[in-house]
């Protein structure tokens, strides 16, 4: 880590705890403290409340709990009974946590700070006594062991959701514009899981996840979730991954088959700004297409072809070009040997276990799926990202020229414009669907 520049110079210069050789809790490397803003606020309030006249006297932070995760070389701090889900949950050793005011250039020790225990490890948080407002300077943290009077100074990371969580996308677009967006993801296999997670990372604040299936062991090589989630509903496993990256998001889970629940389908779609379609049957895709046309909700469809040699992403904006049914009819003669039945949920379903396909090949398609979904959400937002001038993207992982000229080259993409089919049963003049209006006329 030092050669990569991850540790500040103070980590290298300061003495490190080296308990006796017989100690089972020997700590010989720098530690890192992680806390959220609520815990930081509690510490500052304690420092301001009344210990400033007693400089050098430690106060127990009774409303906070600290846990030493020795294998991770980390300490987490949170308020009693309130452990944020984004903090590590690995087992650890509880520590008492104290606060003290000292000079900025002073390293506190058991010899200079009063009120510290002498027989147990503890964490000491130091504020700057030379400032009128302790908040003007960052806190410092020191880990103590009874085996040594010398402490190790720890790095501190305060998780600031509002200011830091999406700081790396600032300048590309204002992520606050996505906080109120509602995205419905139908199909939580490998593709739907990746797309949902990437939109959460970008700042989308509301999700409706729909899938009746559970994670199985054969899913894991291509899914965003891991073995610890096997047996869980895919919706809930992906929800937890979303909240790890965007704990402010609202996630609704529906463990239903939308082909058997029209009321839920039309209700969720009408309340969404965008629908991501990653299902494994053409029936479900056509039903979603009609629901989106009726409510005027944009949809982005994605899937891979057999063995993930290639895949497609289709965007349908009701009233603009063709719908999903138009695409299927228009592409029927272009893709010679590929039927619509071969466009599956990123080969994640049990019925396709015999079809091998690399997770990274699936991910190419899923990430394009997520990117087109994001571009669609940003249509009314100022952004440096340029939208695509196409309705469909075909990505080829491995060349298969026998399936048509679109697949002659590996690692290639093709942009396709979708022409509206005037005879389309879903969006043509003979259709019963009035684009942008549900059956109730809303």
Structure description:
- The structure is a single chain.
- With 442 residues, the protein is of the alpha/beta class.
- 22% of the residues lie in helices and 22% in strands.
- The chain has helices spanning 9-13, 37-49, 161-164, 190-202, 234-245, 262-270, 282-295, 324-331, 359-377; strands spanning 32-36, 59-60, 64-69, 74-79, 93-102, 122-128, 140-145, 148-159, 182-186, 206-210, 250-254, 274-277, 299-304, 310-316, 392-396, 412-416.
- It has an eight-stranded mixed β-sheet, sandwiched between helices. It has a seven-stranded mixed barrel with strand order 1-4-3-5-6-7-8.
- Helix 4 (190-202) packs parallel to helix 5, helix 4 (190-202) crosses helix 9 and helix 6 (262-270) crosses helix 7 (282-295).
- The longest helix has 19 residues, at 359-377.
- It is elongated and about 85 Å long.
- The relative contact order is 0.10.
- Mean pLDDT is 83; it is low at 1-25 and 350-354.
List keywords for this structure.
8-stranded mixed beta sheet, alpha/beta, disordered N terminus, 22% helix, 442 residues, 7-stranded mixed beta barrel, 16 strands
Radius of gyration: 28 Å
What's the shape?
Answer: elongated
DSSP strand content: 15-25%
Major pleated sheet: 8 strands, mixed
Counted by DSSP, the helix tally is 9
What class do helices, strands and sheet pairing give?
alpha/beta
Q: Please tell me the overall pLDDT.
A: 83
Going across the biggest sheet, name each strand in turn.
11-10-9-12-13-14-15-16
For the secondary structure, the number of strands is: 16
* SSE string: HEHEEEEEEEHEHEHEHEHEEHHEE
Q: Separation of termini?
A: 58 Å
The low-confidence parts are 1-25, 350-354
Level of helix content?
A: 10-25%
């Amino acid at each position: 880590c030092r050669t990569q520049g991850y540790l500040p110079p103070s980590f290298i210069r300061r003495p490190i705890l080296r308990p006796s050789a017989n100690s089972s809790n020997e700590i010989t490397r720098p530690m890192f403290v992680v806390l959220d803003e609520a815990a930081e606020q509690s510490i500052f309030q304690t420092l301001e409340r009344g210990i400033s006249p007693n400089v050098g006297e430690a106060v127990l932070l009774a409303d906070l709990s600290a846990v030493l995760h020795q294998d991770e070389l980390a300490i987490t701090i949170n308020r009693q009974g309130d452990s944020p889900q984004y903090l590590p949950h690995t087992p650890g050793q509880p520590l008492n946590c104290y606060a003290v005011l000292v000079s900025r250039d002073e390293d506190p020790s058991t010899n200079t700070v009063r009120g510290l225990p002498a027989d147990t490890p503890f964490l000491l948080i130091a504020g700057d006594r030379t400032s009128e407002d302790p908040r003007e300077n960052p806190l410092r943290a020191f880990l103590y062991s009874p085996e040594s009077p010398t402490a190790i100074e720890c790095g501190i990371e305060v998780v600031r959701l509002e200011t830091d969580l999406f700081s790396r996308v600032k300048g590309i677009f204002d992520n606050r514009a996505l906080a109120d967006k509602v995205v419905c993801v139908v199909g939580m296999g490998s593709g739907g899981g990746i797309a949902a997670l990437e939109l959460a990372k970008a700042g989308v604040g509301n999700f409706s996840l729909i899938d009746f299936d559970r994670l199985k062991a054969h899913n894991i090589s291509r899914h965003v979730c891991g073995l610890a989630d096997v047996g869980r509903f895919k919706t809930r496993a992906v929800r937890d991954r979303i909240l790890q990256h965007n704990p402010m998001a609202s996630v609704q889970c529906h463990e239903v088959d939308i082909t058997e629940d029209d009321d839920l389908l039309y209700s969720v779609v009408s309340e969404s700004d965008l629908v991501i379609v990653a299902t494994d049957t053409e029936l479900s895709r056509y039903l979603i297409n009609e629901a989106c046309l009726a409510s005027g909700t944009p949809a982005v469809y994605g899937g891979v072809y057999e063995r993930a040699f290639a895949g497609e992403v289709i965007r349908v904006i009701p009233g603009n070009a063709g719908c999903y049914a138009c695409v299927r009819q228009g592409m029927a003669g272009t893709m010679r040997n590929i039927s619509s039945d071969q466009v599956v949920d990123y080969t994640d379903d049990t019925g396709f276990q015999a079809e091998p396909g690399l997770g990274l090949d699936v991910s190419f398609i899923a990430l394009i799926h997520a990117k087109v979904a994001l571009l669609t959400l940003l249509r009314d937002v100022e952004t440096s990202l340029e939208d695509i001038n196409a309705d469909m993207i075909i990505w080829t992982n491995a060349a298969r020229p026998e399936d048509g000229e679109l697949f002659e080259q590996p690692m290639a993409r093709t942009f396709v414009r979708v022409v509206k089919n005037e005879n389309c049963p879903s969006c043509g003049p003979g259709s019963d669907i009035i684009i942008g209006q549900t059956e109730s006329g809303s």
